[in-house]
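step=encode ok
step=design start
structure_in=
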């Protein structure tokens, strides 16, 4: 069963001279108003699916991948012969009175082809390097998708935490209101002083302020999620709050080394770094090709005509038809150190690619270790906070009973209540910190989101 976190959190309001704490977060009931009923309720999976389909940066990344595929086709085509057709039309004006110097019209027509036979393996290496780049671009897209998943999960869990925090603040304010009302009766009966009543009224006002603050925090986290989804300004969103069991918060974790080993295979940036090293190695081969000779073949046919060309038997086009065939050998002897510089820089690029790959692995290790430690720490805090909350609630109930009997004073009652409220917040913080880091570890292992469905 899931609750619906809906609308904008309602602030405490005043009615008929009495202060009443009201909020809309969270509730298992469907909002009554038509506006809220028409607002879509988003689950975490729906948020992820929508973001992966519509995020602008991700769509740009996919377009970059498609652009790289076009570059690969161009690199393959460079190994094929080229073919061009050309024509030239000319007119010559002779401003002479000599009859023989008449104006002439000329035209030439040709078809030429070229083919690179050998260039030190540069063309084949370029194709292999471009194919590697395509794989790198695809992994970059996958990496961007993971970044979006992590951002959405964090924002969604923050919103769920804020929603529960609003509920805790509202309940605390309701308890304070009841205490204030009871204290007012005791004051009228002469059982407590006006100072005691004022202290409880002040506590109630403070709790109402906490409700307002919690509502603002919830609205802010919901806005962050909405902005991540890039929703229109007119769109409102409700969040589906799944019923999270204690066993899910305290679920056992695999060994840290096993998580890291799986993450090395699953996270796209690691494979991207490895392919970048292979691409840089091909870049060295590309640079070395500059030291090798190149051989190219050219061929062409052509013809032409001229309007003042005198008598020629048959057509001018046919009589002037010609063919040509050429083989070009180019041997680099001295290139002003361009080739040597290119090789040295390619080697440095390859070394930097290896360092970047190692840095990616170390960064992933730090992220896994941090998430693992935070998850274990939050689980331990959750166990301790749950026990603390249970005893704080029991202490508050006893203190409240004794206050009603006149045994405990106002300060002791407020202290017990604040300790109980603080312990409830600690439970929430530990709960959602554990859930967040468990989900992060799932994403690092390529498992997606499994706890919050």
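sequence_out=
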């Amino acid at each position: 069963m899931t609750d619906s976190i809906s609308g904008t959190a309602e602030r405490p309001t005043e009615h008929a001279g009495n202060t009443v704490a009201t909020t809309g977060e969270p509730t298992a009931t469907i909002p009554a108003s038509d506006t809220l009923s028409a607002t879509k309720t988003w689950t975490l999976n729906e948020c992820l699916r929508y973001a992966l389909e519509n995020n602008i940066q991700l769509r740009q990344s996919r377009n970059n991948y498609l652009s790289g595929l076009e570059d690969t086709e161009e690199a393959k085509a460079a190994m094929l012969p080229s073919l061009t057709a050309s024509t030239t039309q000319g007119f010559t004006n002779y401003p002479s009175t000599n009859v023989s110097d008449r104006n002439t019209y000329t035209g030439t027509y040709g078809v030429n082809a070229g083919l690179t036979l050998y260039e030190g393996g540069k063309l084949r290496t370029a194709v292999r390097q471009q194919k590697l780049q395509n794989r790198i671009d695809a992994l970059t897209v996958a990496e961007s998708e993971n970044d979006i998943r992590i951002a959405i999960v964090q924002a969604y869990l923050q919103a769920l935490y804020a929603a529960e925090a609003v509920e805790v603040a509202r309940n605390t304010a309701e308890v304070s209101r009841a205490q204030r009302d009871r204290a007012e009766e005791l004051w009228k009966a002469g059982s407590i002083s006006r100072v005691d009543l004022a202290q409880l009224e002040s506590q109630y006002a403070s709790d109402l302020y906490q409700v307002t603050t919690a509502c603002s925090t919830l609205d802010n986290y919901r806005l962050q999620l909405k902005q991540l989804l890039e929703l229109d300004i007119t769109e409102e969103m409700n969040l589906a709050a799944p019923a999270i069991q204690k066993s899910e918060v305290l679920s056992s974790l695999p060994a840290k080394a096993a998580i890291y080993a799986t993450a090395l295979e699953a996270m796209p940036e690691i494979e991207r770094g490895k392919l970048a090293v292979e691409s840089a190695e091909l870049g060295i081969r590309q640079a070395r090709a500059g030291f090798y000779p190149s051989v190219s073949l050219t061929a062409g046919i052509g013809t032409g005509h001229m309007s003042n060309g005198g008598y020629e038997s048959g057509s001018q086009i046919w009589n002037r038809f010609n063919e040509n065939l050429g083989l070009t050998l180019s041997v680099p002897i001295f290139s002003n150190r361009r080739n040597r510089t290119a090789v040295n820089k390619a080697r440095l690029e390859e070394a930097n690619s290896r360092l970047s790959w190692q840095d990616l692995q170390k960064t992933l290790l730090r992220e896994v270790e941090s998430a693992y430690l935070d998850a274990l720490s939050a689980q331990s805090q959750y166990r301790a906070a749950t026990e603390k909350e249970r005893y704080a609630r029991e202490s508050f109930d006893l203190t409240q009973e004794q206050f009603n009997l006149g045994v405990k004073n106002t300060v002791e009652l407020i202290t017990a209540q604040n300790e109980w409220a603080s312990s409830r917040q600690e439970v929430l913080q530990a709960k959602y910190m554990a859930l967040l880091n468990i989900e992060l570890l799932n994403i690092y292992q390529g498992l997606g989101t499994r706890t919050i469905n």
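step=design ok
step=annotate ok -> The chain is about 60% helix and 15% strand.
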